[in-house]
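Work package 3, deliverable 3.1, input record:
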Amino acid sequence: MSHKFYGGVHPAEHKEATERKPVVPLEEAPAQVVIPMSMHVGAPCKPIVAVGDEVKVGQKIGEIAGLGAPIHASVSGKVVAVEARPHPGGGKMMSVVIENDFQDTPCETIKHRDNVDALTPQEIIDIVKEAGITGMGGAGFPTHVKLSGAVGKVDAILINGAECEPYITADHRLMLERGEAVLGGVGFIMKALGLKEATIGIEGNKLDAVEHLKSLLPADSGIHIETLKTRYPQGAEKQLIQRITGREVPPGGLPADVGCTVFNVATASAIYDAVTEGKPLTHRNVTLTGGAMARPMNVNAPIGTPIEHLIKMAGGFQTQPQRLLMGGPMMGNPQYDLTAPMMKGTNCILALTDAEAAVQDTEQTCIRCGKCVNACPMHLMPLYMRMYSMKRDWDKVQEYNVMDCMECGSCNYICPARIHLVQTFRMAKFEIRGLQQKAKAKEAAKA
Ligand code: SF4
Ligand code: SF4
């Protein structure tokens, strides 16, 4: 139970509102789903359906156009628009809008596979690709690309069941309610990578999930379950690797550089469904919570369900939220347009009251207490990154390695002066990327 990763914080957990509530389907299915063609790291998919087309659940509607994962219909019905719509990441994104016929007619490609033991590693990777699976912990990296890139290059598979962000319980419930699917998916990942062992890391505030998964494990599975001391951001890839293996990913490096690859428990269960039942990624668990939500709950919802519909299913707001986030309070994305949809990586819709969002109070002057330095799991110096960002001295900001900031929000949380550190670093990274692109364009023009 001793934590080994550097830095981090221990915010109040706030999981009690939903941690004992089983995942339920939506009381009413959405009348329309809005499915963005970009829900992953990489290039947006190309829509392959047109207005007027009838589609079935699991039918492919977006094809890969570069790095990416295909996208499938999450309800059956008629395509009523293929156009730019509000995206939870901000701005608008090409989306396929489907009017639900409430029949849930499955696509013919969804069928049970009997002979899973006979599948080769490459066949498993191909199934994962066709199923459109992306990292479901939030990062959204295409899983088939991660698997292909790890073959022969890693010796440690880590499965993230930490769910370290406050409020969120979607993965906790998944481990309790679909433990066989999680373990089965881990088995397919091991086979795809040709490795005999994997370790699932679960925080100590979910001991019931630890015990449950242990009780399901066959003796010779090669899967280990490790209980981790509760500490944020334990679920971040680099921190999980350090905590479980003691290996440290170098600045700017990738998990594969230290022989590791990391998958989320929800990703593992989606892999299981794809391999055994031929199901693409069309639904996922989402926690609807926060003090402003009337009926906090865990739901399994079709991807593309508008945020406003999810909030309605949770009884609406019992008080006007001070902040509405997609994700947890530390790394979640603020939402301003409730017609935007939930996506493959959405694990939570969080409606915070004034009191809960108090951490965002007015900024005061930095008192140089150094707490942000101690809290930063990436060994950065947030106070200096902030100081030079405010001076717009981008060379200095880069010298302090702002590009290594993973925007975990630990510095924000711990800062007694309530300085909006992580927001400043997001802005700094945006400015620096812009300058880098301009410099590249200039070089290219010269050449
Ligand atoms: S924690 Fe806040 S007040 Fe303390 S040094 Fe960092 S920025 Fe300054
Ligand atoms: S947000 Fe960035 S600077 Fe702040 S603690 Fe996290 S990694 Fe460090």
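Residues 371-446 form one domain.
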